[in-house]
Amino acid sequence: MAPMPRRLQIIAVVLLPVAVVAALLAVDRWFGPASRGRDYVVRIALPPAGGMIGLPRVEGPPDASRPLVVIDAGHGGRDPGASNGPVVEKTVTLALARAVRDELLKDGGVRVALTRSDDRFMVLQERSGIARRLGADLFLSIHADSVDNDTARGASVYTLSGKGSNEAAARIAAKENRADIVNGVALDSENDSVTAILVDLSQDDTHRRSRQFAQLILREFPANVRLHDRDVQSAAFVVLKSPDLPSVLFESGFVSNADDAVFLTSDEGRRALSSALARAIRIYFARQSRAAG
Question: Number of structural domains, the chain?
Fold first, then answer.
């Protein structure tokens, strides 16, 4: 028999192993165990891209005429926020948000919803968006700060402004607003209308009510709650951008400070803060009800 031409030998050497592997894969695909081949792929139904997240449960009296406050526990999931060893902002804010909710539900009369009730990630626009979709009457976003100087301590209250009231306010707003940038959402891609909302203080009524609520929070603080700023601060927080919803951001303290970290994670600290915030919320709604009547 004449020897196989060299070209055919090369082709046979290359193609034969490929053909063998393909045959083995085909056999494994059709006759292999269930955990292999075509049954190995697990398909999970995902929501359509760009769809809105589900709304949280509204708790409290089943009466839509009752005022509704949406409490936002800052950060969550893959965005831990500020931290100091075992003290992590996302955990501090969630515990405090739950405590405020429980305080309000205990006395009744006010409906409450949490933007998140567990450790999940949410972009900033989703948080205020939930409040607007629920038709909330008030929005409170809870955070905790951290700085290199571990002597800084105490709580602060912020409302929306196109320009920070001081350097610290601008720094805090920049830090909180970076939550979306870090996780892939570029805030500077917002259109001109949203940017205008952030800096346009022509929404006088909303801004006025936000400031009234912020002042009530400061007024209701008990003596054992340390204040970092005794006046209402303002900064361009994205989470406060709703033009028609009174919104306040509460910085509960500095996790970078040892005393604040202990206070924020203690039952005593949560009770003091949640009681003050709940009282401020109730007084705010009572005043709005009288004004409307």
Answer: 2
Residue 30 CB partners (closer than 8 Å, separation 6+): 37
Same domain, 155 and 25: no
- Tell me the residue type at 41: V
Instruction: Determine, yes or no, domain membership for 135.
Output: yes
So what's the pLDDT on residue 149?
Answer: 83
122 and 172 share a domain?
yes
**Which residues, other chains included, contact 215 with Cβ-Cβ below 8 Å and sequence gap of 6+?**
232
Identify the CA nearest to 250 among candidates 124, 170, 127, 140: 140
Contacts for 69 with CB less than 8 Å, ≥ 6 apart = 104, 110, 111, 112, 113, 136, 137, 138, 139, 140, 281, 285
Indicate if 156 and 81 belong to the same structural domain: yes
Q: Give me the domain span that covers residue 223.
A: 68-292
CA distances from 16 to 9, 11, 110, 201 (A): 10, 8, 76, 75
Helix axes 124-134, 167-182, angle to 10 degrees: 90
- Residue 235 host element (H or E): strand 233-235
Say what angle helices 267-292 and 89-107 make with each other, to 10 degrees. Answer: 50
30 and 174 in a single domain? The answer is no
For the stretch 15-26, pLDDT in tens is 666 666 666 666
The CATH number linked to 160 is 3.40.630.40
Identify the segments of the chain with pLDDT beneath 50: 35, 37-38, 40, 42, 44, 46-47, 164-166, 168-169, 172, 180-190, 194-202
Q: State residue 131's pLDDT score.
A: 94
Residues 36 and 75 in one domain: no
Half-sphere exposure of 17 toward its Cβ, with a 13 Å CA cutoff? 4
79 in the same domain as 20: no
